[in-house]
Amino acid sequence: MAGRHVARSTFTSHIRRARAPRWLIPVTLLATVVVSASTGLTTPDTAEASVPPNLVLDPEFAQGTNAWTSPSGGLSLVPGHNGHRAIRVTNTSGAAMTLALNDRANTVASTRAGATYTASAWIRTTAPGVSVAAREGEWVGARSNGSKQAAAWLSDSGWHLVTVSYRAVGDGASIDFNVLGWQVPKGQAMDVSEPTLTTDASAPVTSPPPPVPTTTGAPSGYRLAFSDEFNGSVVDTSKWRVHNNSWASNEEAMDTSRPNNLFQANGALTLRAQREEYTAYGTSRHYTSASMDTIGKHSWKYGRFEMRAKLPTTVGSWPAFWLRDDHGEGEIDVMEAVGGMPSFVAQTLHQSTNGGKARLTHGVYSFKDGTLTSDWHTYGVTVTPTLITWDIDGDTVFTVSSATAPWMTSTFDDTLNIRINLQVGGSMPAYFKLPVTSASKFPADYSIDYVRVYQKG
């Protein structure tokens, strides 16, 4: 079609995700419990929507003082407030001095302009008559966007809660959180317990609804067999299995079911990748994201599978829409993309993803007159016993027939389930030399207007 260049890609096994069940811990559903990213405590998922997550890395000091540093004194662990632990900063100099306890890595890696970040800590000193403060600073590299602190005069040696709130100036900055004690006498100390930083930025952004699709309705001879228009306020778990506290071995994010990673608003579903420290089942990741599928809920033998979506632009992000056999090893990648390649999506057919089997891969490097990642597009595949056809906005971009791939008919003589996920980093971005880095902008959003399945009859 005029204006569209379609090129066959040469990449093959280098771009595979770690999808086999042996690389994933057991997936749980929304109604189960989740290990908090920052506290390590077990809390019900149902409470997560109303209790903002604590963004502080290791606030219970389970890793000792590893997440914290001080330029002004020695660090040690002591009993803290209300049965918790505390970090003690001791003045080891020969005179009174200001003590500081700093987060080793800035607690918030990527701000949202206008969001409020609230930090607090329980503080005491071993000598009364000291002024202490909790402080937040917003930084873009080495440049300060602003800061705010709240101070308290400690007339005794008891515990005192100090809280400060800061409103972010820009997007993509970081928030540094530290606690200060001014002119602490020599040999004396400041203790800090239960440091907390929360934000209203974890709430889903209210965005305008996606524009009206350019292609709608069942193809000729097909009926609508399944659809999710994402018009509600929560994910429909009668249709989708949502992954929680699970991860793949060849990427860098932890999938969670939290509303700051997966949410619905204004007729669209959003999978959101965030830069944040998160730990579950002893495994820690520097990013969180989302993944969902219809395994055990719905599957279909042959038909048209269609999704309308807007892809993330963040360098190193890896959104995908794909199908797997319920009982075999076949896989159909309807759409895979790499953040930083604005006009590229891939389509792939696998006899098996376990290696040593056939694979046919194709890439679209430009499409019509626009970029694929900055606009809404419809990605579809039609599966029959003898022909599989991929299309974008109704235009065919790739086909595989049983004459070309004799193994195709037997491989996909099975019901197929749908899988949707947003990975961060990993093998496919690395193959295209676009890994996630400290310069990658987060959050990264993969938004979906609808998913539909059509079958003949």
Query: What's the count of strands?
Result: 28
Envelope shape: elongated
Largest sheet: 16 strands, mixed
The low-confidence runs, each spanning 5 or more residues with pLDDT under 50, are: 1-50
* Helical percentage: under 10%
> What count of domains describes the coordinates?
2
CATH topology of the largest domain: Jelly Rolls
Shape-level CATH architecture of the largest domain: Sandwich
Intertermini distance: 31 Å
Strand portion: over 45%
- Averaged pLDDT, please? 84
Q: If helices are DSSP runs of H or I spanning 4 or more residues, what is the number of helices?
A: 2
- Classify the secondary structure makeup into a structural class: mainly beta
CATH class of the largest domain: Mainly Beta
From N to C, what is the helix and strand string? EEEEEEEEEEEEEEEEEEEEEEEEEEHEHE
The radius of gyration computed from the alpha-carbon positions, rounded to a whole number of angstroms, is 25 Å
GO molecular function, one term: hydrolase activity, hydrolyzing O-glycosyl compounds
Keywords: Hydrolase
Pfam families: Glyco_hydro_16 (PF00722)
Domain GH16: 205-457
Layout of helices and strands:
Elements (H helix, E strand, L loop, with lengths): L32 E3 L6 E3 L23 E2 L4 E6 L5 E6 L6 E7 L12 E10 L4 E11 L2 E12 L5 E8 L6 E11 L4 E11 L22 E7 L12 E2 L10 E3 L6 E4 L2 E13 L2 E11 L9 E8 L6 E9 L5 E6 L8 E6 L8 E6 L12 E7 L3 E6 L2 E7 L6 H4 L4 E9 L2 H5 L12 E13 L1
Parallel strand pairs: 15-18
Antiparallel strand pairs: 1-2, 3-6, 4-5, 5-12, 6-11, 7-10, 7-12, 8-9, 8-11, 13-28, 14-18, 16-17, 17-18, 17-28, 18-27, 19-24, 19-28, 20-21, 20-27, 21-22, 22-23, 24-25, 25-26
Family: Belongs to the glycosyl hydrolase 16 family.
Pfam family, one: Glyco_hydro_16
GO biological process, one term: carbohydrate metabolic process
